[in-house]
Write a structure and sequence with these properties.
The complex is a heterodimer of chains A (413) and B (306). Chain A is an alpha/beta fold. Helices cover 50% and strands 13% of the residues of chain A. In chain A, the strands form four sheets. A five-stranded mixed sheet of chain A has the order 2-1-3-13-6, covered by helices on one side. Chain A has a four-stranded mixed sheet with strand order 9-10-8-11. In chain A, strands 7-12-14 form a three-stranded mixed sheet. Chain B folds into two domains: 49 residues, no CATH class; 231 residues, MetI-like (MetI-like fold), CATH 1.10.3720.10. The longest helix of chain B has 43 residues. The chains are: A alpha/beta (413), B mainly alpha (306).
């Protein structure tokens, strides 16, 4: 043991890479198709740097199962090297005092220069990097079937003010204007695009990120709920509890005109052999083309026993942020690279638009975290706000009441 | 005494063997007893402790009094879950008992193919609630299920959209639950009916009692223990009901069909509010205890005296 420590110190002082294989155990839920392929790619890269990869995949949708497993591992003192955790949950884990520090890796690889400030802040706890970002999903997309709009003689809405007229025309022509799945997170996804479209990026940030009571109970918020109500009129009766991909299928096969959903919907179009720009359009949700709601997957790293753990962790983090991994992973997953300096040549047009808007909004403002996808506020607050949104959408509550409930829910700690 | 002394060498071996033999049942039972104490009562205590802490993501052992319970009962969604439990539990138990009893009485009329029919009614029990929930989700879905079939038959005015209606959705959970469990209750009642002594009924007949009177005055009262055990089983199915709701409605639309169990899961495991989740679990336990314990107590006392 003493010898091992000595060796580690020697290696550290020389700044050389140890040949001894440290184990990198990564908890993730990339178990399906393209995602599993990406995980294998990451494994290769980490192993190429002289580490052993131990896969710790826990299947199950949004990672709820994985989180339960992770909690029990951490409580029992056997935290994995890294785990897939995103958004303000990173800070929640940070507050438990179990996360390792990635500052030296970040400095060596210039993360501050490569990541937009808003994104870097999500990855930090008390000013230090504790997580490494993997990809960027854009949430404020509108997926449009142009054929349907043409048949109905309707214009694709550019603002929420245009929306009712277009939706009315689609409905008259016998189409379902908006394809929607009535699950709370989907209701919330539509809602946040309306907050952004009606109120603008500044209003979104005040109300959904800073939870400023003034913004939350403002007349603008009432207008947001009114708009949300008007969207309700243009979805079909059977939407309740429909999965998002089934709603996407309604746009693909020309039953519905549009869907408000993040860019993971693109995978459904691609799988159906549809071509962006021709068979379908990927546009920013009405009134939001100058803004970008991001949903970023990331890995947090845990404090480890063993002298060679920091090096392994650093190798892992560097591999995740490397241009090669960012390219290959995001091509598979349908998202875009989170760092600058990755060639977009192999990506499709929607991803190119997304990447351009990501860079532009990072510079010019308008890059905001998605609240519906747990990027903006802690899980408890997100949940309470989601409850208000979804119960408004599924009842005949007045916008005024909803605004009052929203302001109360935002106080959930 | 003297005999024991003369047999002393063999006797000591014998008493050792006796001791082992006497202790053996205890030794065999011990592991499951320990497991039961630790994993059942131990975790109840742990949950109770957690419910009085400000735990969020991970357990944090700082005493915080009844703050979580105050939060819990200030939560609209919790009240809705309780209200849904009252509706679901009440209707589910009452309807299962009524249906089960009716089916059992009808089956008990010495009909043909009884075994086959009994199997048909009992069969849903063999399915898990997940399967029941998924099947009924499709049956009740207006665009593919019952409504569509009836509409396609020409009755275009027919509408049955409860599963999409936040006010009515909890009743669809009741329907699926009854479908699953009433066959089981029927089997219990049928066994009870078969256990009734025929001679009493014959005697009543001779005394000139009509069939309804015999059922009301003799058969139903003697089924009392079956009512009791059915009620116990149904009550705990209702209170812990989780998978059925998850598969059937996902708790939706919105959270309109939330039950305490789904509420607890959501808060403890997806919203990083372990403290609040633990508090709701303890309240659920209290509900079970407050319903079942008095009932059990009175029933057991009756049977001891009876």
């Amino acid at each position: 043991m003493f010898k091992l420590k000595l060796a580690a110190i020697a290696v550290a002082t020389l700044g050389m890479h140890a040949a001894g294989a440290a184990e990198v155990e990564v908890l993730h839920w990339w178990t399906s198709g393209g995602e599993a392929k990406s995980a294998a790619e990451l494994k290769k890269m980490v192993e190429a740097r002289g580490n052993k990869w131990k896969d710790f995949a826990v299947a199950g949708g949004g990672g709820e199962n994985a989180m339960t497993v992770l909690k029990s591992r951490v409580v029992s003192g056997k935290a994995p090297t890294a785990a897939q955790v995103k958004g303000p949950s990173i800070q929640e884990w940070g507050a438990e005092g179990v996360l390792a520090n990635l500052d030296s890796t970040a400095k060596a690889n210039n993360w501050d220069g490569l990541l937009p400030g808003v994104v870097a802040n999500v990855m930090k706890y008390k000013g230090s990097y504790v997580a490494v970002p993997v990809n960027v999903h854009r949430v404020n997309w509108m997926w449009v079937n142009p054929e349907v709009f043409k048949k109905a003689g309707a214009e694709v809405p550019k603002t929420w003010a245009d929306f009712p007229a277009a939706a009315e025309k689609l409905q008259k022509a016998g189409f379902i204007p908006v394809a929607h799945g009535g699950q709370p997170w989907q209701d919330f996804t539509v809602f946040e695009s309306i907050v952004l479209g009606v109120g603008g990026a500044k209003f979104y940030e005040d109300s959904m990120v800073k939870l400023d009571p003034k913004a939350l109970s403002s007349p603008t918020m009432e207008k947001v709920f009114d708009t949300f109500r008007s969207v309700r009129k243009y979805i079909d009766k059977d939407a309740a509890n429909r999965d998002w991909n089934l709603a996407t299928a309604m746009v693909i096969n020309g039953k519905a005109g549009m869907q408000f959903m993040g860019d993971w919907a693109k995978g459904e179009f691609t799988a159906a052999g549809k071509v962006p720009g021709k068979d379908y359009l990927c546009l920013a949700a009405p009134g939001t083309e100058k803004s970008f709601t991001f949903n970023i997957d990331s890995f947090i790293v845990f404090k480890q026993q063993g002298a060679d753990a920091p090096k392994a962790q650093s190798d892992f983090a560097a591999a995740v942020m490397s241009p090669e991994f960012q390219e290959v992973f995001n091509l598979n997953k349908g998202s875009i690279p989170v760092r600058s300096g990755v060639s977009m040549a192999k990506f499709d047009d929607c991803a190119k638009t997304s990447a351009k808007d990501f860079a532009d909004t990072a510079k010019g403002g308008g890059l905001v975290p998605s609240i519906a996808h747990q990027m903006a506020v802690p899980a408890a607050t997100t949940g309470a706000i989601q409850d208000v949104v979804t119960s408004f959408f599924n009842s005949s509550q007045s916008s005024k009441d909803a605004v009052a409930k929203l302001a109360a829910a935002a106080k959930t700690k | 005494m003297s005999q024991a002394q003369t047999l002393s060498p063999a006797g000591s071996r014998g008493s050792w063997a006796d001791a082992v033999e006497r202790a053996l049942p205890k030794i065999v039972v011990a592991p499951s007893f320990v497991a039961c104490v630790v994993f059942f009562y131990g975790f109840i205590i742990w949950t109770a402790v957690l419910s009085m802490t400000p735990s969020r993501l991970l357990p944090r052992y700082e005493f915080d009094g009844i703050q979580r319970y105050v939060e819990l009962f200030g939560n609209d969604r919790w009240w809705l879950a309780l209200q849904n439990l009252a509706v679901f539990g009440g209707l589910f138990i009452a309807a299962c008992l009524a249906m089960g009893l009716l089916l059992a009485i009808l089956l008990d009329q010495k009909i043909r193919a009884e075994g086959f029919i009994r199997a048909v009614f009992l069969y849903p029990l063999a399915l898990s609630f997940i399967v029941t929930g998924t099947a009924w989700k499709w049956i009740l879905d207006p665009s593919i299920g019952l409504q569509k079939v009836v509409n396609d038959l020409g009755f275009t005015g027919f509408a049955f959209e409860w599963i999409k209606d936040p006010e009515m959705v909890i009743y669809t959970v009741v329907i699926a639950g009854i479908w699953q469990s009433s066959g089981f209750v029927m089997a219990l009642f049928l066994a009870g009916l078969r256990g009734i002594d025929d001679s009493i009924i014959k005697a009543a007949r001779i005394d000139g009692a009509s069939m309804p009177t015999i059922y009301r005055r003799i058969i139903l009262p003697s089924l009392r223990p079956v009512f009791f055990s059915s009620f116990m089983i149904l009550a705990h199915i209702a209170i812990k009901s989780f998978d059925l709701v998850m598969a059937l409605t996902g708790g939706g639309p919105g959270f309109a069909s939330d039950l305490p169990a789904t509420f607890m899961y959501t808060y403890a495991f997806t919203r990083n509010q372990i403290g609040l989740g633990a508090a709701s679990a303890i309240v659920m336990l209290m509900i079970v205890v407050s319903i079942i314990v008095p009932f059990m107590y009175s029933e057991l006392r009756r049977s001891r005296h009876g």
